[in-house]
Amino acid sequence: MKVEHLPATATPEEATAILKRDGAVIVDGVISSPEMDAVAEELKPWMDATPFGPDDFSGRRTKRTGGLVARSPRCRELVMNPLILGVAGGLLSHASSFQLHLTQVIAIGPDEPAQPIHRDQWAFDFFPFPKGYEVQCNTIWAMTDFTEENGATRVVPGSHLLEDKLRFKLEESVPAEMKKGSVLLYTGAVYHGGGANRSKATRDGINITYNLSWLRQEENQYLSVPHDIARTLPIELLKLIGYRRGAYALGYVDDLRDPIEVVRPDLGTTGLGDALTAESARAALKQKQTA
Ligand SMILES: O=C(O)CCC(=O)C(=O)O
Ligand SMILES: [Fe+2]
Predict the structure, then answer these.
(1) Count of CB atoms within 10 A of residue 165's CB?
(2) Separation of 122 CA from ligand 2 center, angstroms?
(3) Which residues line ligand 1 (CB under 6 A)?
(4) Phi/psi of residue 164, nearest 5 degrees
(5) Who has the most CB within 10 Å: 124, 159, 160, 168?
(6) Looking at the DSSP assignment, which residues form a beta bridge with residue 208?
(7) Within 10 A of 49 (CB to CB), how many other CB atoms are there?
């Protein structure tokens, strides 16, 4: 039992198939080590200014730094990565669209004990979603190498299809070991948790997650991204952070206006049916590959 690795040349379909089968998959080297160092440099002042967590679940030796769309142009690229969007679109294709759920650097400090094993979808007030109906596609980008010793995320492969509210011992999970620049993808239903950090250095990962557009976002993107910054973002990213309707009508503004009009009045109403879908994510990937 381990988390399967794919090369960065894998197609979204290949990664989605393993994600659906195992509840988790690692794509190696999605960006290079120097590219990740550049991301880390951009994030450092924000991470330095972040306090440690307030409770055992957040981690009292762990720092969680959010607001990454507003704070880090390089993280916007990670959020919009075509391969990742293709996988998210594939996993969540049973709904009409998906959106950005949260952005958060998770820096697990030395001597932090393991986080309790959990499902991320428990954030939705522990609603018992039907088995196989995934509501989230999650990523953790390795900012440092992830090793069992330094607190690599622990995963219970295949557990996305088990009963809800189970309790697992750490020995029943495996560490998602990977190199800096690699990405762990895992579903909202798979049981997992941050590992214990027994090393002398911090384990840094960037948690970027996506969820179905009819659910509430964990990180409030409208308040985390000031309008002055939102105005400057690419349209596809604006839509992804929620400036569009989810399903037919969710999230409209006053007289049935498209929410994107509020920050980009120049665009006018783009109408219904403009949501980011698995299909549009795949088309964007193809466009990038042939460019
Ligand atoms: O940092 C990690 O490896 C995982 C953290 C996690 O699962 C969470 O905070 O929900
Ligand atoms: Fe989690």
Answers:
(1) 9
(2) 9
(3) 106, 115, 120, 140, 153, 192-194, 205
(4) -85, 160
(5) 160
(6) 103, 139
(7) 9
Q: Are 212 and 138 in contact (CB under 8 A)?
A: no
Number of other CB atoms surrounding residue 69 within 10 Å: 25
Nearest CA to ligand 1 atom 10: 120
Helix (H, G, I), strand (E, B) or coil at 181: coil
Instruction: Provide Rg for the chain, Cα atoms.
Output: 18
pLDDT in tens, 12-65: 999 999 999 999 999 999 999 999 999 999 999 999 999 999 999 999 999 999
Closest CA to 281 of 99, 88, 103: 88
**Which DSSP symbol is given to 161?**
G
Q: How far apart are CA 36 and CA 180, in angstroms?
A: 7
Ligand 1 nearest atom to the CA of residue 151, by list position: 3
Please return the burial class of 11, using the count of CB atoms within 10 Å of its CB with bins 0-12, 13-18 and 19+: middle
Structure tokens at 44: 């450092």
